[in-house]
T9SS type A sorting domain-containing protein (Flavivirga aquimarina), 96 residues
Amino acid sequence: MAFSQVTVESSNEENDITKSNLFKFYPNPVEDELFIIGSNKIKSIEFIDVLGKRVAIHHFNKSIIKMDVSQLKSGIYLIQATDENGKQETQKLVVK
């Protein structure tokens, strides 16, 4: 019986998840509806394209958000959330 060598590496994704305290969202990639869950109330969500241009901004005052993103063109965006304390976080979003 032979065993092959197994290498275990820590995943940056796991670290990113634990560092991501402001908001989580799903699905990613998204087609029509995006769900965002904030650890605090979210005041604004910005969508920024790969060229750095703000293509949309939405204002809220809640921690659970359902958004229609069907108006966004297919591609990669940064989604930036600002919470009620002024804290910001940015994550990558893929729109189909």
The beta strands are 23-26, 33-49, 54-68, 75-83, 88-95.
